[in-house]
Amino acid sequence: MIRIKKYRSYKGEVGKIAPNLIQRNFKADAPNQKWTTDVTEFSLFGTKLYLSPILDMYNSEIISYNISQRPLLGQVVDMVDKAFAEIPDNTNLIFHSDQGWQYQHMQYQKKLKEKGIMQSMSRKGNCLDNSIMENFFGLLKSEFFI
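Structure (tokenized):
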């Protein structure tokens, strides 16, 4: 049996909070203009797993993902490294997330800056600001999970 559950990664301000550049405008005119990410927890036969995907707002394509048994910074860094290998530097990409501790972490933010990517974050506790990613997780739940 597979069960999906909302993973709460917010642990307060543990790093720098980025401005909300997306402002709920989830439309993109071309690939690699706007990406979004989040982490969700699901249980597979009693084992907790954490899914961390990157979704392109242009066509809802999953650019990269990582599944881990624990929500660690390395999970998000691995996912980002795989995605960044596929695009050139300085593309004016906006990368949106919630204010989870992983996205506030200096190592994560440094990777975005080095790649020339603008970081955007939802307002604290406002799932509507990242509803495109929440909808993706909802589709997963309705299509594949019980």
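The chain has a mean pLDDT of 87. The longest strand covers residues 47-56.
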